[in-house]
Design goal:
The protein is an alpha/beta fold. Helices cover 35% and strands 19% of the residues. Bound molecules: flavin-adenine dinucleotide (FAD).
Length: 395
């Protein structure tokens, strides 16, 4: 496993020392799952990794995963240390605590409580599902997860291993999957949710994420790969030639960096808006630069064409007009030849409407639109609380 995604021992100690231990705990208030950085940092400072990890595990079933991939917009943005010099790298500290706990084989077993004879079906095995499970099993519910893929983890499995080693996802799920109240059916796609209510289940939680990739609606689009197809098995598309990525967000950046890692001689991102409009973190921007990914901004793709064994992109320049709308620049067409692969990374949406049906609940990206792992977990936990409430009201 790559170690350079974790803090070194001296970086870890330095970050712990920098914590001001604010009595108002703004970092806790900013965390979607109410994890308390100032408390876990205080224990880590006392060299008590076990207690620190226990605090994280009690609130976040994906503590190490979130430590590795949480964006800086939650606890880090709230950290008061930023007004002195720079905020504490809280997610990285969290990841290191959970890594040490894992390596020391510290295990925080889930409680095994007597069953309340209520059965919940969960569709999808991503972070939102795990958030719901972590609450439900503590209250005596049995949970059956139906997952269409062969493994658990959801969209996290599309995050490049260089950012999130996938064995961490499997490790964090394992303790839930081995709990006697949890069962999992993989390779099982559920399209009719209501039928589950007619079977043995008291409620259904749909956490099926966003399965429909956004498209451009242009000629030749079928020649491109979509980001999910690509990121699922990037090794199948390894090339030492040129790769084009269409899109300017974090998923596009992951595609571009993956193509570079898998040997592409040149990777070029085509972005419709300005460089400054790209929805990427500072870290991703740095990685794109470091990996010499070219970014062609203010450019719209109008057509994709196959010419012998490579793909050609027809492009035109864009600009903002006086009303701030993005428009094509007249006569600015440029033909770009010679790409081995074109990857569409424009984001995704849910694949069906959210209909209000009694005892069917929705959580995670399916309910809220694209979010983050920690928000999806929080959403799953919240829906589990709603279910506990509504099923106890119905008694
Ligand atoms: C490339 C990429 C990079 C990302 N980077 C980050 C990041 O750095 N930090 C961060 O916090 N978040 C990141 N995210 C976002 C994060 O992964 C999602 O917000 C989170 O996974 C959403 O969780 P979820 O449980 O709602 O849905 P998902 O994780 O999408 O899980 C849904 C699950 O439902 C299954 N499913 C769908 N339909 C059915 C059906 N009909 N029957 C059975 N199963 C079904 C799917 O196979 C999937 O396993 C990234 C996402 C992607 C794609």
């Amino acid at each position: 496993m790559k170690d350079d995604i974790y803090l070194t021992a001296s970086q870890f100690d330095a970050e712990l020392e920098r914590c001001l231990n604010c009595p108002t705990k703004p970092c806790l208030k900013a965390c979607p799952v109410s994890c308390s950085p100032c408390d876990f940092i205080a224990h880590a400072k006392q060299k008590n990794i076990s207690e620190a990890a226990k605090i994280i595990a009690a609130q976040n079933p994906l503590g190490e995963t979130c430590g590795l991939i949480c964006p800086n917009k939650f606890c880090v943005r709230a950290c008061l240390r930023q007004y002195k010099d720079s905020p504490i790298r809280i997610p990285a500290v969290q990841a290191e605590i959970m890594r040490r706990a894992r390596l020391q084989k510290l295990f925080f077993p889930l409680p095994i409580v007597s069953l309340n004879n209520k059965k919940i079906a969960i569709i999808g095995a991503g972070p939102a599902a795990l958030g719901a499970i972590s609450v439900l099993i503590r209250q005596g519910f049995s949970v059956t997860i139906f997952e269409k893929e062969a493994s658990v983890g959801g969209a996290l499995n599309l995050i490049p291993q260089a950012r999130l080693p996938h064995e961490i996802i499997a490790y964090e799920w394992q303790k839930f999957l081995s709990h006697p109240a949890v069962s999992l059916q993989t390779k099982t796609e559920v399209t009719d949710w209501s039928v589950l209510l007619k079977q043995e289940f008291d409620a259904v939680i749909v956490t099926s994420g966003e399965q429909k990739s956004r498209t451009l609606g242009i000629e030749g689009e079928n020649l491109a790969l979509n980001y999910a197809q690509y990121l699922k098995n990037p090794q199948n598309f390894a090339t030492d030639k040129s790769v084009a990525v269409i899109g300017g967000g974090e998923v596009a950046a992951d595609c571009a960096l993956t193509a570079a890692t898998f040997g592409a001689k040149q990777v070029e991102m085509f972005v419709r808006r300005r460089l400054s409009d790209m929805r990427v973190t500072e870290q991703e921007r740095e990685s794109l630069l470091k990996n010499r990914v070219n970014i062609t901004a203010l450019t719209r793709i109008t057509k994709i064409e196959k010419q012998s064994d490579t793909l050609t992109l027809y492009t035109c320049k864009t600009q903002f007009n006086e009303e701030g709308r993005l428009i094509d620049v007249p006569h600015s067409e440029i033909v770009r030849k010679g790409f081995s692969h074109v990857i569409l990374a424009l984001g995704s949406t849910r694949d069906r409407e959210l209909v209000e049906i009694e005892r069917i609940f929705y959580a995670g990206d399916f309910a809220t639109g694209s979010s983050t792992a920690v928000e999806a977990i929080a959403s799953g936990k919240q829906v589990a609380d709603e279910i506990i409430q509504s099923l106890s009201d119905a008694r």
